[in-house]
Design brief:
Urease, subunit B, two-stranded antiparallel sheet, 2 helices, alpha+beta, four-stranded antiparallel β-sheet, 145 residues, 8 strands, single chain
Length: 145
Amino acid sequence: MSGGAAYLYGDDPVEINAGRAKATVTVSNTGDRAIQVGSHYHFFEANRALDFDRNAAFGKHLDIPAGTAVRFEPGDTKDVTLAEFGGHRRLVGFSNLVDGGTTAPATRARAIDRAIARGFKGTNLDHKEDRPRDFHTETRPEGER
């Protein structure tokens, strides 16, 4: 379709991200420049100057129509709703924090560690229940391997 073409959906409203887990987070832009986040960007990995509960945002994107975005001006604070990614839930790229499946506990722990190391606001260790033990560094009783 091109030009003035339009899609017809009927009279009923269209629900986007139906059946997906959702979360609402309060976001503050602590930076000195405006930040815009697109509809399908992994919100956990959004600009490090945005301060919000990144644990709640893990595996989710903005619950807005495709191709749109939310803009955060310096000093702005606003609530946004996030929706869980569908499909295989494998995220690669963005801010290079996740690069793996969002349902894998080790991926989540690694992403949180990377976010802390890289100075992303809103990342903390208060959500220990969301951080599984790392099987590579876990200590085991003598004789168990």
